[in-house]
Amino acid sequence: AQTVTQSQPEMSVQEAETVTLSCTYDTSESDYYLFWYKQPPSRQMILVIRQEAYKQQNATENRFSVNFQKAAKSFSLKISDSQLGDAAMYFCAYGIPNYGGSQGNLIFGKGTKLSVKP
Amino acid sequence: ETGVTQSPTHLIKTRGQQVTLRCSSQSGHNTVSWYQQALGQGPQFIFQYYREEENGRGNFPPRFSGLQFPNYSSELNVNALELDDSALYLCASSRASGRGSYEQYFGPGTRLTVT
Predict the structure, then answer these.
(1) What does each C-alpha distance from A18 to A2, A10, A114, B18 come to in angstroms?
(2) CB proximity under 8 Å: A 4-33 to B
(3) How many Å lie between the alpha carbon of B51 and the closest alpha carbon of chain A?
(4) How crowded is residue A40: how many other Cβ atoms within 10 Å of its Cβ?
(5) C-alpha A83: how far from chain center
(6) A29: part of which helix (H) or strand (E)?
(7) CB B4 within 8 A of CB B107
(8) Which of A47, A54, A108, B71 is most buried (CB neighbours < 10 A)?
(9) Is pLDDT above 90 for A91?
(10) Which residues of A touch B66 (CB under 8 A)?
């Protein structure tokens, strides 16, 4: 069974600094997606960034980038120039493509609570 | 473009009662997934609806059931509520494509408290 592990329950970063959140996963599949979602205290889950396993290039979205190590089954999120608004729970998630047109579920880690200090 | 909406925002029920939660998917999306998020945990997959049929189910008992309507909105029904059903229930919509893009967009959730 696929599993997603986030080993850092809490992290803290100084405003304008860089922080890296860790995620490892276990799967026997070769084709899958990985995601980082942000859940602020207002609780609406927001997609931050996604990575397709068949793409070797690491995904980047503005201040957010990932370090995808497929062989090591590692998928870390780097937040550069941290802002107060980045404070939230961050969830790593895994999903498998379904070529039949429908989609399967996402498997989430337990999350990392990020605090940003002014 | 209208995002995913859920109702109600909060709900308090008594053990043994039944509850219905509602979700309106984002415009252009035809797939709805439901997740249960216990306090301090990541979301757990309950089930997914595609073309008005259940399309995958997580490790939840049959008292968790659902519907998807022709306009792609969805309901989650929970019968015989238990204290452990207290959680945030998240609905996520997505648009199925040939390769099944996995960008699921979440609603704000319904906080269910069972007393």
Answers:
(1) 30, 15, 12, 47
(2) 4, 33
(3) 9
(4) 13
(5) 18
(6) none
(7) yes
(8) A108
(9) yes
(10) none
Q: How far does B69 lie from chain A, in Å, by closest CA?
A: 16
Cα–Cα dist B44/A80, whole Å: 29
How many beta-carbon pairs below 8 A join chains A and B? 84
φ/ψ (deg, to 5) at B2: -85, 135
Q: Do A44 and B106 touch (CB under 8 A)?
A: yes
Q: Does A1 touch chain B (CB under 8 A)?
A: no
DSSP assignment string, A85-118:
GG-EEEEEEEE---TTSS---EEE---EEEEEE-
Say what the pLDDT of residue A59 is: 93
**Distance (Å, rounded) from C-alpha B12 to C-alpha B15?**
10
Per-residue pLDDT tens digits for B99-112? 555 678 999 999 99
pLDDT value for A103: 58
d(CA A37, CA B10): 23
Q: Which two tokens stand for residue A113?
A: 């609570």
